[in-house]
């Protein structure tokens, strides 16, 4: 029914327009939700993630009877409703204690999901230090060979970048780089640490970087994985040619809408330049067309004038004409 | 004097060396930077013994070194000074990240747009406001309070060959409604055409397996689609008359008073003769249960 039912208000129209696919997309926001059985620990995890990701996150406070790995439909429904294409699902069971499912959505369907078990956790509030500002774009650091080892780890790295990279920006204030999120893969575990950056004077232009741990602190162990097929992933990666196209150089538009540009001309050859043949330059017609002697004379003249370059063609045509005339005379 | 100067210079040089050393980090393999995402990937192997001895300290040290390298990299980007604040210009992110929705498709052309393209008809911009001769002011070309609005007239001349008892205002209103309906129909047709759905010219859309009810509707519609609204249409041998909703009939406002009196008295007597229903078994059950009498 999309497109058939017209939005009734301008506001509704704007909402629907914002949800349509776009060439340059919005920043992805994340949906944070918990399953039917959750733990106090996981609740704090979701809350901390919410405060790290604000304003690009939506936190669902109530429990939802769902398991994304068994049935994806409800997660897809929630994400469509909250207009979020990333999700973090928390659940706690005897089999998989303190379980976090990190996933993302493409075209309203789950693209890939990674299950991560939480082995130890320290929340933002447990570190009694000054925190960085909210809504900052963090510096992301990935360390360890394991991230490059296999496809699953590479995809996990990709999803972590996607989840934590924050808003896309074109410029950054150098003094405003305050937050570092580091992901270290070693011994089959992933250690997530979050630090506040202290830029110290070093005596040279570059600052000396010091770090202060500010939380949250997560030790994660990868569990089940559902990664997207190559085909689907490729489709999701497609970048429209309009985005890839480089802006044209040396062309600008002034406020009156006219196009301004610098063009580079080659040197003009005045010999071969096609100019308007004015009537004044044309030769006057001579009377007595049939006379042989005149024909011969004109032939020779044409030969002289059009002896070189492209013009010689014209002379040849004239030759044929005069010959036929001769035949008619004889 | 010269020796003092040399010593001073050497001291300054040593200080500078020290400062440089404090911001440089040596790594066997170079980090991959993606400054658009403020991201650095360190492919160097980690030292497991150090990690086992002091996990947190080691993680912090490695992170500090990498953060230093990333910040050095961002510092080397072209900068700008905006209101006394130094800003580094970031390039587009290099890391391929999947989209959240597929690449938008081009909007299908409407019938009119197709035709205009074929005939090379181009939209000419019209001014938004038009001069209203009557009101002597500029008014919007269309919409609320538009210029030269015919519906605004309180008096309409009856055309020469028109029925004098016809309501000209109602006619205008009906024509407007008709135009709106036609426009909506055309819009839906355009959508159906772009989605390659079948649109019937007249009647109901055809289906591969219509239900009994749909067939009935189609038949009754077809039957009535004659000039005389199906009045002379013969019915089939065993055809049941299609149930049509009965038209409500109202009594005349002033008419048969005797009938009205009887009808209203009937209602009153019904109300006064109402006797409450009494369920004997239900009422007696608790009493009987008290006295231990079995219910027969």
Automatic annotation (TrEMBL), chain A:
SMART domains on file: Brix
Q: Where is the composition biased (Basic residues)?
A: 277-286
The main location is nucleus
Q: Does the keyword Nucleus apply?
A: yes
Which PROSITE patterns does this entry report, sorted A to Z?
BRIX (PS50833)
Compartments it resides in: Nucleus, Nucleolus
Listed InterPro entries: Brix, Rpf2
Q: Which residues form the Brix domain?
A: 28-231
One GO biological process this protein is involved in is: maturation of LSU-rRNA from tricistronic rRNA transcript (SSU-rRNA, 5.8S rRNA, LSU-rRNA)
**Top-rank taxon, per record:** Eukaryota
Residue ranges of region Disordered? 277-330
One of the record's GO cellular component terms:
nucleolus
Keywords for this protein: Nucleus
An annotated Gene Ontology molecular function: rRNA binding
Concerning its family, UniProt says:
Belongs to the RPF2 family.
- Provide the protein name: Ribosome production factor 2 homolog
From TrEMBL, chain B:
Protein location: Nucleus
Query: What Pfam families is this protein classified in?
Result: RRS1 (PF04939)
Q: What is its main location?
A: nucleus
GO cellular component, alphabetical, reads:
nucleolus; preribosome, large subunit precursor
InterPro entries xref list = Ribosom_reg
Q: Which GO terms describe its biological process?
A: endonucleolytic cleavage in ITS1 to separate SSU-rRNA from 5.8S rRNA and LSU-rRNA from tricistronic rRNA transcript (SSU-rRNA, 5.8S rRNA, LSU-rRNA); ribosomal large subunit biogenesis
Keyword terms: Nucleus, Ribosome biogenesis
Region Disordered: start-end pairs: 229-248
Query: Is Nucleus tagged as a keyword?
Result: yes
The text of the family note is: Belongs to the RRS1 family.
Its biological purpose is as follows: Involved in ribosomal large subunit assembly.
Q: What is this protein called?
A: Ribosome biogenesis regulatory protein
Taxonomy of the source species? Eukaryota, Metazoa, Chordata, Craniata, Vertebrata
């Amino acid at each position: 029914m999309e497109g058939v039912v017209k939005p009734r208000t301008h506001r509704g129209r704007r909402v629907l327009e914002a949800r349509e696919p776009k060439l340059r997309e919005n920043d992805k926001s994340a949906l944070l939700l918990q399953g039917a059985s959750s733990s106090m620990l996981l609740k704090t995890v979701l809350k901390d993630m919410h405060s790290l990701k604000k304003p690009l996150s939506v936190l669902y406070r109530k429990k939802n009877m769902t398991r994304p790995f068994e049935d994806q439909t409800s997660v897809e429904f929630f994400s469509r409703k909250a207009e979020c294409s990333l999700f973090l699902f928390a659940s706690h069971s005897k089999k998989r204690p303190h379980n976090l499912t990190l996933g993302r959505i493409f075209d309203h369907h789950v693209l890939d999901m990674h299950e991560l078990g939480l082995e130890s956790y320290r929340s933002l509030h447990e570190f009694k230090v000054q925190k960085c500002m909210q809504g900052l774009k963090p510096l992301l650091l990935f360390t360890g060979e394991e991230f490059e080892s296999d496809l699953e780890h590479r995809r996990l790295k990709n999803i972590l970048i996607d989840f934590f990279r924050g808003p896309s920006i074109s410029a950054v204030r150098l003094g405003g780089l305050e937050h570092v999120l580091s992901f270290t893969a070693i011994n089959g575990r992933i250690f997530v640490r979050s630090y506040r950056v202290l830029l110290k004077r070093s005596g040279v232009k570059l600052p000396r970087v010091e770090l202060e741990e500010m939380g949250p602190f997560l030790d994660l162990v990868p569990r089940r994985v559902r990664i997207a097929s190559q085909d689907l992933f490729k489709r999701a990666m497609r970048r429209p040619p309009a985005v890839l196209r480089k802006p044209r150089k040396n062309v600008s538009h002034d406020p009156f809408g006219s196009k301004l540009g610098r063009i580079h001309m080659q040197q003009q050859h005045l010999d071969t330049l096609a100019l308007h043949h004015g009537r004044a330059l044309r030769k006057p017609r001579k009377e007595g067309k049939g006379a042989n002697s005149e024909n011969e004379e004109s032939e020779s003249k044409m030969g002289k004038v059009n002896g070189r370059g492209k013009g010689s063609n014209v002379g040849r045509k004239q030759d044929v004409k005069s010959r036929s005339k001769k035949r008619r005379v004889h | 004097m010269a020796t003092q100067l040399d010593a001073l210079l050497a001291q300054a040089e040593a200080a500078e060396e020290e400062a440089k050393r404090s911001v440089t980090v040596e790594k066997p393999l170079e980090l991959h930077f993606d400054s658009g995402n403020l991201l650095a990937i360190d492919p160097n192997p980690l030292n497991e013994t150090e990690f086992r001895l002091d996990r947190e300290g080691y993680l912090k040290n490695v992170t500090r070194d990498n953060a230093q390298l990333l910040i050095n990299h961002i510092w080397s980007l072209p900068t700008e000074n905006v209101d006394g604040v130094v800003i580094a210009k970031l390039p587009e992110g290099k890391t391929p990240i999947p989209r959240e929705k597929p690449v938008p498709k081009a909007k299908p052309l409407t019938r009119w747009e197709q035709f205009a393209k074929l005939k090379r008809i181009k939209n000419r911009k019209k001014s938004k406001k038009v001069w209203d001769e009557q009101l002597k002011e500029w008014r919007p070309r269309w919409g609320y309070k538009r210029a030269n609005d015919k519906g605004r007239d309180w008096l309409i001349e009856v055309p020469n060959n028109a029925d004098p008892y016809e309501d000209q205002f109602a006619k205008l209103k009906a024509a407007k409604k008709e135009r709106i309906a036609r426009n909506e129909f055309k819009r839906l047709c355009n959508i159906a055409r772009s989605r390659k759905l079948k649109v019937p010219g007249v009647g109901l859309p055809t289906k591969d397996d219509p239900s009994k009810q749909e067939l009935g509707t189609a038949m009754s519609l077809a039957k009535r689609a004659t000039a005389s609204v199906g009045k002379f249409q013969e019915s089939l041998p065993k055809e049941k008359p299609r149930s049509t909703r009965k038209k409500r009939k109202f009594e005349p406002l002033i008419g048969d008073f005797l009938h009205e009196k009887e009808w209203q008295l009937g209602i009153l007597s019904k109300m006064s003769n109402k006797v409450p229903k009494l369920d004997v078994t239900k009422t007696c059950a608790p009493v009987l249960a008290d006295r231990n009498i079995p219910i027969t």
